[in-house]
Amino acid sequence: MTRVMVLNGPNLGRLGSREPDVYGATSYAGLVERCTALGKEFGFEVEVHETNSEQRMVEWLHEAADGRVPVVINPGAFTHYSYAMRDAAAQRTAPLIEVHISNPYARETFRHTSVIAAVASGTIAGFGLGSYELALRALAEQLTTR
Question: Is 80 among the residues known to form the active site?
Fold first, then answer.
């Protein structure tokens, strides 16, 4: 099985209770379950992680780069300003797909900039938790056409 890391940034562990009108009613545990189940369909061993720590996220990105591990990443608020995370993501050695539950471009102006997007394989946003599913499907496609 191909190892895949799904990395989630600040406040994503509060899914289900945090602004359900924006992020939906599914809990973080529900997200983990959806990602691991769909990953199995594609032959992925999915590891889902969440942190409020920029340092921890950078460490996971280094681990992925060193191990040539594909990544699906929802950087949360780090998306808009974390150059440390951008530099870590730029070291990727496998596909890295940025995801967002909501559409950042339909929200506040400060959310319109992603420092991660320029170093990602692609970005999927605005499809609720389905953004993760679309990203895993895209990874499967990319990995089979390599």
Answer: no
